[in-house]
Amino acid sequence: MNPIPRHCLIPVLSLALLACSANPPKAPAVADGTRATLAILETTDIHSNVLSYDYYKLAEDTSLGFERMATLIAEARRQYPDSLLFDAGDTIQGTALADWQARGKELACDQELAMYKAMDVLGYDGGTIGNHEFNYGLPFLSQVTDQPMAIDGVAKRRCKGPDFPLVLANVFNAADGLPLYPPTALLERTLTALDPTGQRIKVPIRIGIIGFTPPPILLWDHNNLDGKVTTMGVVEASRRYAPALRTAGADIIVAMSHGGIDTRPYTENMENAGWHLAREPDIDVLLLGHSHQAFPDPGNAKSRYNDLPEVDNTRGFIHGKPAVMGNMWGKSLGLVELGLVRSDGQWRIDAERSHAEVRNIRDKDGTTVAADPAIAAAVKAEHEATIAYVSAAIGASDFPMTTYFTAIGDVSAIQPLNTAQRAYVQRYIAENMPELKDIPVLSAAAPFKAGFGGATDFTDIAAGPLAIRNAADLYLYPNTLSAVKLNGIELKAWLEKSAAYFNRIDPQQSDAQELVNRKTPSYNFDVIQGGIRYAIDLGKPVGERIVDLRHDGQLIQPQQVFIVATNNYRASGGGDFPGTGNAHVLFNSPDMNRQILIDWVRQQHRLRLEADASDHPWRFVPLRTRGPIVFRSASGKLDLARATGITGVLETRVDGDGMSTYTIDISKSR
After folding, report:
1. Does residue 350 share a domain with residue 473?
2. How far apart are the C-alpha atoms of 47 and 53, rounded to whole Å?
């Protein structure tokens, strides 16, 4: 299929339409009954995993990587000669490579981002902007996407961006109300089809694309976006811009929506609005993301999409519209096969000949597809520079820092961060807010890598020398530090929200019960430290679990005041934690949490287990159960739990995928 000319974008700044020309050429007549097949290929949530490489371990990781997904794309293109390739966002952030290009070394205006260089090797047809694209700020985003923005602090210049159009319909410049990116684009392509007589012919088709990002970016990236941009709900933005695409002659409209599938009542600020977007008449195909979960996911009895109304988790339809979500980190490719038929002078989707599927780079037997060598060649210089950057020494530790057993109380990978954050806030208050010096300062941190992505998705830092890569492994995201002020009621409610990470346990049940609620991401399991002690009662429902909450040995009083060090995402309301939001924010620091950790380690020189990883702030209320309580973690790690003082845990079954099932006895006090 022919690539789109850059001049053929449709910005659609109002309901008026800007087409490729004042009078676009009329498409030649195509007989009714003509049939064709078009494949829509989707990548999403790549998070700058260009290569199958773990910069935190300085080792190959064949379970992920754009370079391997590129092989799947090549295979799909051979199977479907008529295809288009799109990206649904969260593309340029997520690895040390991305951080090095955004923060470690200033990227020249004429230098293309490594992630986009790799994508241009494959020739994408379009993409959209995810929420994590905003993490590095608007000046950086404007530069690397070649999208000038009339916003204070953003240079008004043209730089090297990707060679494909980026569209975004629901984010606007706060100053003039204009879209930050072109909301839509119209792609003109040619298909090979069969006419009603069975003769093979070439026919034209116009594919409209429209993009969306989660409206809560205003909360999650408050520091970068406050007062600079506004957002609109995904459904409202679709109704504003998609009809104009149809008017311009779009035969098929593809929505790249960086959001998942949520069947709860729609709100304009909804994070995962794909189910509602599918009901819009001008949307024909949905490419989804953000949730880091494959859709469709047939054969998975535990898939959250199995029993949703108007959702076909086998063939990939939502409200009768083909939809796909291709997982994360370059692990899989989303594919929608569209059977097209000409009817009443228009191309229509034949649902019986259409389906969606997710193709993984790793087979069930553990083998992975080969990497496309062209990708590594394209980013060789950036890859080598990143390795040098993350290898710079910052200190040492006499204990391993891991997240294998965070769910049962290991704080080895959490306490160093909490200590660093707390020291920063205490110093800031002493220097800038001395009137608050007597208020206790606490710190909240969560395990970002706790096995969601499999056996390699854990923080695992060996005892010994520490480098920048280790700090990046402890703190994955380029968040900045913030502090909030709250009372005892709100502090308890914060911990109640965090305790939703666990399932409610029935003591009378004889079957095994899962400890961890897999629907709650580990980054919402905040552990608060700083003289805090509390217990979690798993026999109680969510919201009623935190008991014996104390500070420095004394029961915390409802109106007792505390300051909590956290990150800008949490402080601004990310995760909907009580005690957060603008009314609670005491100050926002320009310094990244990760850099604060690095500076603290450098000051300490050497971390020690007793001083830096033995503060266990929480425990389970003793609960005797008839059946076992189980959780999953990487295989063969039991000694790490025992080394940190955790008892009552056993490895009971090796599951064969690098993971094992463990049991935990919570019948006794720790």
Report:
1. no
2. 13
> Which pairing describes strands 285-288 and 252-257: parallel, antiparallel, or unpaired?
parallel
Any residues with CB less than 8 A from the CB of 205 and at least 6 apart, and which?
36, 38, 188, 189, 190, 191, 251, 252, 340, 347
Q: CB-based contacts of 77: which residues, under 8 Å, 6+ apart? A: 41, 83
371 and 396 inside one domain: no
* Residue 29: predicted pLDDT: 83
Pair 557, 483 in one domain: yes
Q: What is the pLDDT of residues 323-355, one digit of tens each?
A: 999 989 999 999 999 999 999 999 999 999 999
Q: Which residues contact 366 (CB under 8 A, 6 or more apart)?
A: 657
Q: Domain limits at 560? A: 392-402+409-504+519-610
In a shared domain, residues 398 and 365: no
Report helix, strand and coil shares of the chain as percent, to nearest 5: 25, 30, 45
Whether 373 and 396 map to the same domain: the answer is no
* CATH number for position 170: 3.60.21.10
18 within 8 A of 7, measured Cβ to Cβ: no
167 inside domain: yes
Indicate whether 654 belongs to any domain. Answer: no
Q: What pLDDT sits at residue 590?
A: 67
Model pLDDT, residue 272 = 94
Residue 23 in domain = no
Closest alpha carbon to 100 in 87, 90, 115, 117? 115
And the tokens for 200? 């093979």
Amino acid identity, residue 205? I
The DSSP line for 134-149 is: GTT-HHHHHHHTT---
Total domain count, the chain: 2
**Do 316 and 341 fall within a single domain?**
yes
What local confidence, expressed as pLDDT, does residue 3 receive?
Answer: 41
CA 312 to chain CA mean position, Å: 24
CATH (domain of 559)? 3.90.780.10
**Same domain as 416, residue 355:** no
Cβ-in-10-Å burial (0-12, 13-18, 19+) of 246 comes to middle
Q: What percent of the chain has pLDDT over 90?
A: 83
Question: In this structure, are 379 and 396 located in the same domain?
Answer: no
Give the residue from 383, 418, 446 where a domain finishes.
Answer: 383
- Angle, CA 55 vertex, CA 52 and CA 59 arms, to 5°: 60
pLDDT at residue 658 above 50? Answer: yes
Tokens 């799947």, located at residue: 72
Residue 27: pLDDT band by 50, 70, 90 thresholds?
low
C-alpha–C-alpha distance, residues 342 and 348, integer Å: 6
Spatial distance between the Cα atoms of 491 and 337, rounded to a whole number of angstroms: 50
What is the per-residue pLDDT across 104-136, written as a single tens digit (0 to 9) for each?
Answer: 888 999 999 999 999 999 999 999 999 999 999
* Per-residue exposure over 540-568, b if at least 16 CB sit within 10 Å of its own CB, e if not: beeeebbeebebeeeebeeebebbbbbbb
Helix (H, G, I), strand (E, B) or coil at 77: helix
**Crossing angle, helix 415-432 and helix 593-604, to 10 degrees?**
100
Q: Is the residue at 120 inside a domain? A: yes
